[in-house]
Amino acid sequence: MRVILGSSSVRRRELLGSLGVAFDLASPDIEETPLADESAETYVLRLASEKAAAIESGDDDVVIAADTTVVLNGEIIGKPVDRADAVRILSSLAGQTHQVLTGVAIAHAGRVAAAVETTLVTFTPLSAATIEWYVDHHEVLDKAGAYGMQGAAGAFVERIDGSPSNVIGLPLHLVVALAERLSVNLLA
Fold first, then answer.
1. Rounded to whole angstroms, what are the CA distances from 133 to 51, 90, 126, 145, 146?
2. 177 forms bridges with which residues in the sheet?
3. 103, β-bridge pairs
4. How far is the C-alpha of 152 from the C-alpha of 149, rounded, in Å?
5. Over 7-36, what HEC string results?
6. What 3-state DSSP class applies to 67?
């Protein structure tokens, strides 16, 4: 059995690797624009499922794909398009509680198991100078919500309610549970 992680995310690779799982990488190229009137849950589940389906694999292979987004006041906040957008996003998250949703899809032997994990994250209030510093000194353009909790932005997180690995991009407990639904033990 070969495990394939359908992601170019360094954080997802690190998280899956922390389980001791040997895996190959594939980077599916799909359109990631939300559809009109698409809920955040439907959006991340659709993208994860499309990523899993886009990866060439054999019958015995296990394909793991995920997509993460941030939601504030019902609005999907994706990855920033530029520096100014990153500043705008972080300013809107400052002092607020937002949701981090990750859709996970696992394909194996012609079957797919998929689900969404939601975690609530509360940011401390942030000064404009702190936001400027963070945007100037850290990678923000490749991250949903313009931050990575596993790095310096961890100092912005006042409270988290749910899975920490979900906020980083791959809810490990959900990955293991979905694999088990397909009779695959990733921890063996």
1. 34, 12, 11, 16, 13
2. none
3. 67, 116
4. 7
5. CCCHHHHHHHHCCCCCCEEECCCCCCCCCC
6. strand
Pair type for strands 24-26 and 75-77: unpaired
Catalytic residue ranges = 67
> Chain centroid to CA 152: how far?
18
The contacts of residue 119 (CB under 8 Å, 6+ apart) are 99, 100, 160, 161, 162, 163, 164, 166, 167, 171
Domains parsed from the chain with CATH numbers: 3-181 (3.90.950.10)
Tens digit of pLDDT per residue, the chain (188 long)?
899 999 989 999 999 999 999 999 999 989 999 999 999 999 999 999 999 999 999 889 999 999 999 999 999 998 999 999 999 999 999 999 999 999 999 999 999 999 999 999 999 999 999 999 999 998 898 899 999 999 899 999 999 999 999 999 999 999 999 999 999 999 98
